[in-house]
Amino acid sequence: MSARPQTPLLDQVTHPEDLKRFSDSELTALAHELRAETISAVSETGGHLGAGLGVVELTVALHSVFETPRDKIIWDVGHQCYPHKILTGRRDRIRTLRQQDGLSGFTKRSESVYDPFGAAHSSTSISAALGFATARDLGGQCDGGLGDAIAVIGDGSITAGMAYEAMNNAGHLGKRMFVVLNDNDMSIAPPVGAMSEYLSRLYAGEPFQEFKSAAKGAVSLLPEPFREGAKRAKDMLKGMAVGGTLFEQLGFSYVGPIDGHDMSQLLPLLRTLRQRATGPVMLHVITKKGKGYAPAEAARDKGHATAKFDVVTGKQFKAPSNAPSYTSVFGEALVQEAAEDSRICAVTAAMPDGTGLNLFAERYPSRCFDVAIAEQHGVTFSAALAAGGMKPFCAMYSTFLQRGYDQVVHDVAIQRLPVRFAIDRAGLVGADGATHAGSFDVAFMANLPGMVVMAAADEAELKHMVATAAAHDEGPIAFRYPRGEGVGVDVPERGEILEIGKGRMVQEGSRVALLCFGTRLEEAKKAAEALSAKGIAPTIADARFAKPLDKALILELATNHEALITIEEGAVGGFGSHVAQLLAEEGVFDEGLKYRSMVLPDIFIDQASPKTMYDIAAMNAEHIEAKVLDVLGVVSLGSKRA
């Protein structure tokens, strides 16, 4: 383990009010210590590194200028909040990040009064800040009090429509509030001293409107590379950096861009804005993701998410795997299908790597579309691609697809358009916790008329389902698969096209049937092995489809067994509920079948290892074994199995 950094100034900080004692030069030095402490902590825990390193100076500046927790700092997404947590009374627990019973990797209201609004999905911060500002003006009360509201939103998150809906409303209401646009996708070319000196002179006391207009013109003082970067900003935000045209039309006073790593710019400017703002203000800061840590700066994703790593070299400690990840199996299978069908295209919402579409983008760039953090648009875009004769695969995490659900219903399902939904991160996901768990997609997809819903039990099944989706043109189809590695089965050279609504028998047995939907199949097999020692040999079947159900298979299992247990990695209302509905309508319960459904419990499960999370959910092999013994009325000897 690397030696922990020396942090004499940071050691004096327990809460943000301690920052008020420091001079500006000391705050600059403290920021360096905070960066070192963040790197050290994440090296031990793993987590989102690059985003936090990019906002170290901004975090120090905001907490030193504003009066938190009365003033509410709302971090969009929240994956950049580790430095914030260190400054807000949680440094002693920072090395428990993303671990069971430890600190969340995102902001969380139940964790600290300094986390006024929980996050983990993007583009919510401006809406939340406006809500706090309005509550303040209406005389509301909450923990810590109500003062200013400051949303910190990245250039990626601001691509989502929700951010613009919020800005439009904020401009209309005219409430005093602050939005800090943390833009880490522009080039900064040193020196930027002209801007710094200019802002220092402005701080002397010019009227706010003169200050604002002068700051807008200050971009002309920047060196040419920075000036060019400021002008291009983002295509969708054209013109904002050289005049804030878009934001000012929305009713914001726009200031920037400034160097978000230069405390001599940040501190005086934030003080001025806090002193003089009367309505909504947009401050545009340029930062560098992974700033101050060479391995992160050099990484393609700027150290977005890392495993534990060596601080000196940046080398990550990842255990070798004997099986490919489900995500990579999907990506490779889709490339294989696309090679034979030029109509296949792929759509994702800012997650090309996370969904495995980076492979597709390299091979077929003209057919791969990253629509940015805009799931609603991505789903409707896919619907129209399908209407136009293409075969779109809309690849999104289960937890993010929720954001496009109205479009799934209205634009895809009602029109019976053959959009293929590749639903990654199904089930419980480990260190990211409840916000990223894919708990609800089976329930919300399977209740839609005409929707086909599949779940892969292993990596070979996933390959079959990609092929099945590619061949399915009669309407929408979805297939789900978990995070992490497969179970190590042989993956076929080509996927087979499955018969829609047809499951498969895995092993024949008697008395009790285990009907699995998804990757709990492996746990069911382990449970069956343990049960065989007790003289019980369950039948095991893989449903493959939650919709349409394999009616013949289910009725056969119900007829030939005393008990039927369904097992799925999803919330109540999903596969098991559809099976129960079928059995009820067929009158099977009238004949005395014992039926149980193993689903995720009616709680949000905090971060832990996936195995521990499924222990909490009571869905691992030993829990399946116990359920079988219980439903058959067999008294367990009480011996606990490992």
In which range does the helix fraction lie? Answer: 25-40%
Q: Uncertain segments of ≥5 residues (pLDDT<50)?
A: 186-223, 230-244, 637-642
Side-by-side strand order of the widest sheet: 7-6-8-9-11-10-15
Q: How much beta, percentage-wise?
A: 5-15%
- In angstroms, what is the radius of gyration? 27 Å
Between the first and last Cα atoms, what is the distance in angstroms?
A: 31 Å
Q: TL;DR of this structure?
A:
By secondary structure, the protein is of the alpha/beta class. It contains 24 helices and 17 strands.
Describe the structure.
- Helix 13 (326-340) packs parallel to helix 19 (459-471).
- The chain has 24 helices and 17 strands.
- With 642 residues, the protein is α/β, with parallel strands linked by helices.
- It is 38% helix and 14% strand.
Task: List its traits.
14% strand, 642 residues, single chain, 7-stranded mixed beta sheet, alpha/beta
Structural topology:
Elements lengths: L23 H22 L4 H5 L1 H10 L6 E4 L6 H9 L34 H13 L11 E6 L6 H13 L3 E7 L9 H10 L5 H10 L6 H9 L12 H5 L3 E7 L3 H14 L3 E7 L7 H5 L27 H15 L3 E5 L8 H7 L4 E3 L4 H13 L3 E7 H4 L3 H9 L6 E5 L16 H6 L5 E4 L3 H13 L5 E4 L23 E4 L4 E6 L3 H12 L6 E4 L2 E3 L3 H10 L2 E6 L6 H11 L8 E5 L11 H7 L4 H12 L10
Parallel strand pairs: 1-2, 2-3, 3-5, 4-5, 6-7, 6-8, 8-9, 9-11, 10-11, 13-14, 13-16, 16-17
Antiparallel strand pairs: 10-15, 12-14
